[in-house]
Task: structure prediction
Amino acid sequence: MSVALYSLMADVGRNKCTKKRSPALLGRVHAAIYLFLMSSIAVLAAGGSATATDWERLPDGRAVIDIKGIKFTFPAAGSDLDSIHFNQASHQAATLREVLAFPDKNRALFDANADTNIGIYIREKGGPFLDHFDRDAFKSVGFAFHVGENQRNCSSWGKAFDRAKAEDPKDQKLEYGWRESVTAGIQKVYTRASSSGEGAKEIQSLYCNENQRCGSSVCLLPNLSFVFRFSSVAHPQSQWADLLKNIDDVLDYVLPERSNRKAGR
Result:
């Protein structure tokens, strides 16, 4: 309470036994109380303007999470809010639910960190995957994005895929439009036959290990890579083309600027 207001209230207290109060004094009290209330409202309003700045939203309701200039779009509701993790292996780990709830805090972390990882795990049950896709089509599939200057993983796999593509096709086993590398080593490497003409240009090669886990690591931009893995039991080689088409659709959905580039917009 201001000194002036306190003084006026004290004056009223000293005169409370008086039957008639001065109209001038009452007017001063009312004016002071009004100014005090208006000042309090102004302080509250100023505090409100300093609250968190929410993430940008698309017309369909998706939140746009901007990480070092790369825009990811994720649902702001649905069953995947706790299945999308940011920097899960660090002490700064957060789910999508937490990133949406505390935008300023997480925006500052993304800006300060040299690298940011996003892992997307697909629950077996729930509504549409990412509130958009048939969840059953992505059984056993996992996705990850890496934002940062260190892109050694996708670069190394890119070189391995290039070596496999350079092999003589006559030495490779061809099945379902995929050629199996003869020099890959422990990991089996598969590249699309040039005649298949299917799929996104970034996803033309896969690796599989002895545990029947397959996937790929792809450099999308100098500071952005994409990794996906799946079970070849759930998705045999005969179904790879369909699976990769679905994965390509997820990429376009999560990275709208990529979709715009493909469409020439």
